[in-house]
Amino acid sequence: MEPRARAGKNVGKETFNAKEIRALLYAYGDVQEPLPETVRVLDEIVTEFLEGVCFEASRHAQVAGRQKLKFDDFEFALRRNPQYLGRVKSMIEKRQKIKEMRRTFDQEDDMLAQEHGKEKPSARDDELLDLDDEDEDLEIRRTASTTKGTKRKRGAK
User: Fold this and answer.
1) N or C: which terminus of the chain carries fewer CB neighbours within 10 A?
2) In degrees to the nearest 10, what's the CA dihedral of 30, 36, 39, 40?
3) What integer is the mean pLDDT of 36-42?
4) CB count, 10 Å around CB of 24?
5) DSSP state string for 7-48
6) Which region holds residue 116: left if phi is over 0, alpha if psi is between -120 and 50, else beta?
7) Is a pLDDT exceeding 90 seen at residue 31?
């Protein structure tokens, strides 16, 4: 279906939150409380733009014989505007970098835990032993105060 034919369904309905659009307009130099017509028109413009880009990307995927959209499809849809294309590429690169950093961080945490032989006790084990965080702190303080001849800081294990 052509994007213009589908766009008729959403005319008059807000796609985005009006509060966010007002904040966006204010950030770009409009008055703090813009006219409702301005918010509605900007909502329609952005919605129509996004529908057009998604339609073109889906058409490219369909020609390629796929049902799912890939980044390449959006690259194809935005190929005529290098600013949009560059922005989308940078956002995808940042997202991948964050994903890799999270994966590395999780792996390092797991490796450190295995090196020190410490496994975090589960909440179920604490329930079975009827322990909570306050009981553990009290136990540590008692053992620290009863050891003679050794100087230990409070809370040190």
Assistant:
1) N
2) -160
3) 92
4) 15
5) HGGGTTS--S-HHHHHHHHHHTT--SS--HHHHHHHHHHHHH
6) alpha
7) yes
